[in-house]
Amino acid sequence: MDHSIGAVARLAGVSVKAVRHYSDLGLLTARRTAAGHRRYDDTAVVRLRLIRTLRALDLDLPTIHAVLREERSLAEVAATHADALAIQIRTLRRQHALLTVLTNHPELEDLHLMTEHAEHAEQDRRALIDEFLSTTLGDADPAVRQNLTPVLPEDADAAQLAAWAELTALTASEDFRASVRRLAVGYRALAGDDPLRADPAYRSRLIELRRTEAGPQWYRYQELVAVVNGWAVVHPESA
């Protein structure tokens, strides 16, 4: 069945201007009447509905043209677009989280700190923490290092971003690094050949060591690691 340009536009749910535009780009074919008017068949309605759907999904016209000409499959285009959209969503979530943090930390230095550390690549963030742990704890047990390693997720929320920014600032403090080194030395002296010992006397001396050598900053570091990793925040001495 032949349709006028107005009829095909109504059937497909688009404007007459859009039909003309798509026709001029070669996305639609039409025959001309003796009077020069465009006439479209039912296939044009189907193609127009597909174009409208793909445009609503933010696909560009050259890509849609390739699909209509069967140069690219719809499945391939959808997969590529979905991957790109996933990246955009992660970026928007990160930006939203940063803005949420900055509503409570509007100072300029906070803006710089939050943005700089949040935008680090994952390998750069891991290298930063690995350097801190290696230079303070030395050859600590792998399980200990794992429990002290924050891993900022790609879809970090505002609390995780704030914790990460505070944590990286803390690890840059030479005073804190020195206190962690003293804690590590004292821990090795206490533990001796049995780093997993858990008798009451040892635990009491370990608590005192943490209090005197590391203090509140050490507990804060552990709390921040828990927040970044999405773990339950438990006071170290109550576990």
From TrEMBL:
Protein name (record): MerR family transcriptional regulator
Reading the lineage from the top rank, the first entry is Bacteria
Q: Which UniProt keywords apply?
A: DNA-binding, Repressor, Transcription, Transcription regulation
**Ranges where the HTH merR-type domain occurs:** 1-70
Q: What molecular function terms (GO) are annotated for this protein?
A: DNA binding; DNA-binding transcription factor activity
The protein's matches in Pfam families, at most eight in alphabetical order, are given as: MerR_1
Please tell me the species this chain comes from. Kribbella speibonae
Entries under PANTHER family matching the protein: MERR-FAMILY TRANSCRIPTIONAL REGULATOR, REDOX-CYCLING DRUG-SENSING TRANSCRIPTIONAL ACTIVATOR SOXR
